[in-house]
Amino acid sequence: MALIRDEALVIRSYKLGEADRIVLLFTKGHGKLRAIAKGSRKTKSRIGGRVEPLSHLNVQLWMGKDLHILSQAETIDSNFELRIDLPSIQRAMSILEIVDKLTHDDYPDPTLFDATIRAVRSLANNKSVMYVPAFFLRALQIEGFGPNLDTCRLCGTNDDIVAFDPRSAAVTCSQHPIGSEITPGALRAMRLVLQGQASRAFVVTKREDEFVMEGLVVSFCEAMIERKLKTISPVLRH
Ligand SMILES: [Zn+2]
C-alpha cells in the first residue's frame, strides 16, 4: 500500500459495521475515491468529527487496490456555516451531488476541484442563491459541456435570443423558439459566468432573472447527466 497526502472535500460518509465509516472524498490529485475511516464512529476518534459532508480537509491515505484507508484528516475548513439552516444545506448538498455525478473514481480533475472549493466557500461566506447555478454552469463548462449562448442554434443569428434548449445546450431566437424562455437578464448572467465573471453577474442580476437562470441551469444539468438531481427543489424545474 502506498501512502499519499492530498486535499479533499467530503462528498458523503456512511456507516460501516459498529465503529467504522466509509468516506466518499473528492481529492484534488487523485479524483473521487472511497476510503475507510477506521474507528471513526468511536467517541475518541480524532478523524470522526472531521469527515462530515462539505468539510475541506488535508488527508493522508493508504492507497489499496480495492480499498483505501483514511489514516489522517486535518480540517482546512469545516464550512459549518452551510449546515446551519435547511436552505443552505440543500444548496450546498446540490453542489456535492453534481460533483459526484460529474466526477469519476480515481480520475484527477484539479480544475473542477478548485472550482468546487471556491463555490462551497463562497456559498458559506455569502449565501447568494446564484452560487449554485453559477457553479453548475461552470462545472459543466469544465467538463466540456459548455453551452452555446451566443447564436441561435437553428439560424445562427445573435439577435432576439428568447429561449434556451437544455437538451441541445444552445439558445434559439424568436423565429425558432425551441426550449424554455430565457430573459435578457438571465442570458447576460449565464454568459458572464461562462466568461469567468460570475461575481459581476451576481451584482447586476435581478432576482427574477436569477430565478430563470436557476431553472434553466438545473434543466441543463439534468439533460447533460441524463438524470434528475435529488437535491433540487421542485419549484426550480421548468
Ligand atoms: Zn433562429
Explain this structure.
With about 240 residues, the protein is α+β, with helices and mostly antiparallel strands. It has 2 domains: about 1-80, Beta Barrel (OB fold (Dihydrolipoamide Acetyltransferase, E2P)), CATH 2.40.50.140; about 130-235, no CATH class. It has helices spanning about 85-100, 110-125, 130-140, 185-195, 200-205, 205-225; strands at about 1-15, 20-25, 30-35, 55-65, 70-75, 160-165, 170-175, 180. The strands form 2 sheets. The protein has a 5-stranded mixed β-barrel. It has a 3-stranded antiparallel β-sheet with strand order 7-6-8, with helices on one face. The longest helix has 19 residues, at about 205-225. The radius of gyration is 20 Å and the shape is elongated. The chain starts with a strand and ends in a 13-residue tail after the last helix. The model has no long low-confidence stretch (mean pLDDT about 90). Zinc ion (ZN) binds near residues 152, 157 and 176. Zinc ion binds next to strand 7.
Topology readout:
Layout: E1 2-16, E2 20-27, E3 31-37, E4 56-63, E5 68-77, H1 86-102, H2 110-125, H3 131-142, E6 161-165, E7 170-173, E8 180-181, H4 184-194, H5 198-204, H6 207-225
Helix pairs in contact: 1-2, 1-3, 2-3, 3-6, 4-5, 4-6
Zinc ion (ZN) is lined by residues 152, 154-155, 157, 172-173, 175-176.
